[in-house]
Design a protein that fits this description.
With about 325 residues, this protein is an alpha/beta fold. The protein has two domains: about 130 residues, Medium-chain alcohol dehydrogenases, catalytic domain (Quinone Oxidoreductase, Chain A, domain 1, Alpha-Beta Complex); about 150 residues, Rossmann fold (3-Layer(aba) Sandwich), CATH 3.40.50.720. About 30% of the residues lie in helices and about 25% in strands. The chain has ten helices and 16 strands. Strands 3, 5, 6, 7, 8, 15 and 16 form a seven-stranded mixed sheet that branches. It has a six-stranded parallel sheet with strand order 11-10-9-12-13-14, with helices on both faces. A hairpin with an 8-residue loop joins β1 and β2. α2 packs across α3 and α2 packs across α9. The protein is globular, with a radius of gyration of 20 Å.
């Protein structure tokens, strides 16, 4: 079978499409005939050697959609790698069936992006009925879903923050009540104006750096800011506990992997997300599809910020 493998660390140039032996399932495992695989920034980090758990040579890919030997169409994580291949082995208990109304790219987007948005709102932010939510990077993979899920979960007002008019227009199209420029300078004032003169109950931030600090300034009393990324590469600035106490504020961090190990952390929310997509209540912003042989080009386009939506490698 064909796989996308790295034998050394680096950029898109280190990806090679080679022939490999078919994977052999162990006890409790199943082979998935891969139709498509999702591409994430973590895959680029693994190829570059800046992500743990990689022993060379290594087959990349942590998300697959395909068919099991009994014909079920399923989606699954391959966190140990091996997703960029014609066949992948996954634990039999961790495959989730996909409604026929849901496309491959839509199903793949529900794994990292969909489950992250779900847990941010349900677990970390503990969004309450009628509360206001600000979603930074609102046109991104997680942000575009969080805008819609916030409404689905009972938010009273959803405010999208994004860097361009085009991105803000998309967020409004997806259901945001208002959209503001995400530039840190003046961010708090713009959020308060968009939120009818008061601070926000929840801010979701994937940018870090100055954007994170501005998000804290935009919170109402007992507001919660959840940091789940560092897209700015500025790091997460230290937060003064006295400042939090004075505003009765909460500053939380989030990482998806440990959340998936919770009893209710994976199958139930993923099934619910797929159902929302199937019913047309959750719109997925899908992006480009590349043949498996063009994985290097997909990596290069992602690294250069030339892609939007969920990027997929088409295997068959």
């Amino acid at each position: 079978m064909r796989v996308v493998r790295i034998s050394r660390f680096g950029g898109p140039e280190v990806l090679e499409v080679v022939e490999a032996a078919d994977p052999v399932p162990g006890p409790g495992e199943v082979v998935v005939e891969v139709a498509a695989a999702g591409v994430n920034y973590a895959d680029l980090s693994r190829a570059a050697g800046s992500y743990g758990g990689v022993t060379l040579p290594f087959v990349l890919g942590s998300e697959v959609v395909g068919r099991t030997p009994d014909g079920r169409r399923v989606v699954a994580f391959t966190f140990a790698g091996g997703g960029f291949a014609e066949r992948a082995v996954v634990p039999a208990t961790e495959v989730v069936e996909i409604p026929e109304e849901v496309g491959d790219g839509e199903a793949l987007a529900m794994l990292v992006q969909g489950l992250t948005a779900w847990h941010l709102l349900r677990g970390s932010a503990r969004l309450g009925q009628g509360e206001s939510v600000v979603v930074n990077a609102a046109a991104g993979g997680v942000g575009s879903l969080a805008v819609q899920l916030a409404r689905e979960f009972g938010a009273g007002r959803v405010i999208a923050a994004a860097s361009t008019e085009e991105k803000r227009a998309l967020a409004l199209e997806l259901g945001a009540d208002a959209a503001v420029d995400s530039e840190p300078e003046g961010y708090s004032a713009r959020v308060r104006q968009a939120n009818q003169g008061r601070g926000a109950d929840v801010v979701l931030d994937a940018n870090g750096g100055a954007a994170l600090a501005a998000g804290l300034d935009a919170l109402a009393q007992f507001g919660r800011l959840v940091s789940y990324g560092n897209a700015s590469r500025q790091g997460r600035p230290p937060v003064d506990a006295e400042r939090l106490a004075e505003g009765n504020l909460t500053y939380a961090g989030f990482w998806l992997r440990p959340a998936l190990t919770l009893d209710d952390g994976f199958r139930r929310p993923l099934t619910a997300l797929l159902d929302l997509v199937a019913k047309g209540r959750l719109r997925v912003v899908t992006g480009a599809e590349y043949p498996l042989a063009d994985a290097g080009r997909a990596f290069a386009d992602i690294a250069a910020r030339r892609t939007t939506g969920k990027v997929v490698l088409r295997v068959r």
